[in-house]
Amino acid sequence: MTSAETGSRRVPARLLIAAAIAVVLLLLGGIAIGRVTAATAPPPSNTSAEAGFARDMQTHHRQAVEMSLIVRDNSQNEEVRRLAYDILNTQLHQAGQMYGWLEAWGLPQTASEPSMTWMTRPAADGSTHEHADAEVSHRPGDPMPGYATGAQLTELQQATGTDADRVYLTLMVAHHQGGVEMAQAVLARSDEPVVVDLAESVVSSQTSEIDYMEELLAALPAA
Question: Which CATH superfamily is domain 15-123+131-219 in?
Answer without folding.
Answer: Ferritin, core subunit, four-helix bundle (1.20.1260.10)
